[in-house]
Design a protein that fits this description.
The protein is mainly beta. The relative contact order is 0.32. The strands form two sheets. It has a six-stranded mixed β-sheet with strand order 2-10-9-4-5-6. A four-stranded antiparallel β-sheet has the order 1-3-8-7. Helices cover about 5% and strands about 50% of the residues.
Length: about 110
């Protein structure tokens, strides 16, 4: 059974921080690289962070140095720490495998005010 449950979003001022959480079903979590994706209003979904089974991480330049992905293996949970947030970071955030599966959770909304 596939489960992806995101939480932790909210409204924050520019420069602020948030920590997102995603609980994934065990079969997804242990077999795949996991990633966080973002869909901004009117834009396509993009990956903003990834973590391999070995723990290596990668980020696009747009968030490098500001976002940090991590995981808690016993809890099947992936986190995304968002620091120094900008209005351009506004969007719905989702976790999924990399490459993504044909299933998405409900996401969690992040709104950054200027």
């Amino acid at each position: 059974q596939v489960q992806l449950v995101e939480s932790g979003g909210g409204l924050v001022q520019a420069g602020g921080s948030l920590r997102l959480s995603c609980v994934a079903s065990r079969n997804i979590f242990i077999l795949n690289t996991m990633g966080w994706y973002r869909q901004a209003p009117g834009k396509e979904r993009e990956m903003v962070a990834g973590i391999t089974r070995g723990g290596s991480t990668n980020y696009p330049d747009s968030v490098k140095g500001r976002f940090t992905i991590s995981r808690d293996i016993p809890r099947n949970t992936v986190y995304l720490q968002l620091n120094s947030l900008k209005p351009d970071d506004t969007g719905d955030y989702y976790c999924n495998a990399v490459p993504f599966l044909n299933y998405w959770g409900q996401g969690t909304q992040v709104t950054v005010s200027s």
